[in-house]
């Protein structure tokens, strides 16, 4: 019997790397997607192989439809797709909306929203029982920013994650009787390199005393929630958006 295949977009660092490691157990093949840092992706693949799982690193920008099609074709070579973690996402430097360029807005929405839609499309084509598939699970990475709006920082990013909230609910209902569950996790402030990429390398240290638990979350803490949503343990859960924020922004 061939392995169940899982695609983790942005699986080479941060939350995605933790998810990849946790999915990389015997009987499962993990497709570890990345854009630029091949060494980080190769290191995650090596860790998975050491623990007896199978993995392959596949370069590809989820902001490009051609790259997404190639990513899924690579995954097809390893067995039937059982799950997608729509994890790749980007922020930009802190700006007010009246300062944002169209290039910035297009980049944020193309990667965070269009990329997640296109990956979900390809996953549904393969996993839906309507298309002859065996069913599966999709988990999207939303953000507490969708409730907070992230003023004077990145309203564009927050709004892109609001789109992910809505996509999660709509797609979940669209494929609920086709064997596919679609859920999201909504992280708060998690200690990864994402903040440095948005020009705020000290963000965690600066804000942690203001967080309900007085600390940021870890990539592993978010990954554990994702793994539950990916697994049969959550077999009656679909369309759910799970706050993994240590109590931050839990009110509507
Ligand atoms: P991260 O540490 O910055 O890692 C990002 C990962 O995504 C890397 O593997 C990176 O690969 C990959 N990536 C970036 N752009 C990509 C693209 N265009 N196509 C494919 N892969 C791409 O991020 P993170 O903190 O783990 O965040 C993961 C997800 O959680 C994101 O969707 C983020 O919005 C969401 N989230 C994070 C936080 C937080 O506080 N960290 C909070 C809420 C939500 P390369 O290294 O090759 O570029």
UniProtKB/TrEMBL annotation:
<dbReference type="GO" id="GO:0047936">
    <property type="term" value="F:glucose 1-dehydrogenase [NAD(P)+] activity"/>
</dbReference>
<keyword id="KW-0560">Oxidoreductase</keyword>
<dbReference type="InterPro" id="IPR020904">
    <property type="entry name" value="Sc_DH/Rdtase_CS"/>
</dbReference>
<dbReference type="InterPro" id="IPR002347">
    <property type="entry name" value="SDR_fam"/>
</dbReference>
<dbReference type="Pfam" id="PF13561">
    <property type="entry name" value="adh_short_C2"/>
</dbReference>
<protein>
    <submittedName>
        <fullName>Glucose 1-dehydrogenase 2</fullName>
        <ecNumber>1.1.1.47</ecNumber>
    </submittedName>
</protein>
<dbReference type="InterPro" id="IPR036291">
    <property type="entry name" value="NAD(P)-bd_dom_sf"/>
</dbReference>
<comment type="similarity">
    <text>Belongs to the short-chain dehydrogenases/reductases (SDR) family.</text>
</comment>
């Amino acid at each position: 019997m061939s392995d169940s295949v899982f695609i983790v977009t942005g699986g080479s660092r941060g939350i995605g790397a933790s998810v990849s490691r946790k999915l990389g157990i015997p009987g499962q093949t993990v497709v570890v997607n990345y854009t630029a840092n091949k060494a980080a992706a190769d290191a995650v693949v090596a860790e998975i192989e050491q623990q007896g799982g199978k993995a392959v690193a596949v370069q590809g920008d989820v902001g490009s439809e051609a790259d997404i099609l190639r990513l899924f074709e690579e995954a097809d070579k390893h067995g039937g797709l059982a799950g997608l973690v729509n994890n790749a996402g980007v922020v930009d430097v802190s700006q007010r909306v009246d300062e944002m360029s169209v290039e910035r807005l297009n980049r944020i929405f193309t990667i965070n929203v269009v990329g997640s839609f296109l990956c979900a499309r390809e996953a549904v084509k393969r996993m839906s029982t309507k298309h002859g598939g065996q069913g599966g699970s999709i988990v999207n990475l939303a953000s507490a920013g969708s409730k907070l709006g992230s003023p004077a920082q990145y309203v564009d990013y927050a709004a892109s994650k609001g789109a992910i909230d809505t996509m999660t609910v709509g797609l979940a209902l669209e494929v609920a009787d086709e064997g596919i569950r679609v859920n999201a996790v909504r992280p708060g402030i998690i200690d990864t390199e994402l903040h440095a990429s948005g020009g705020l390398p000290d963000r965690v240290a600066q804000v942690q005393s203001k967080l309900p638990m007085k600390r940021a979350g870890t990539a592993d803490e978010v990954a554990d929630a994702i793994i539950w949503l990916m697994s049969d343990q959550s077999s009656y859960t679909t369309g759910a958006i799970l706050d993994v924020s240590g109590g931050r922004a839990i009110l509507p």
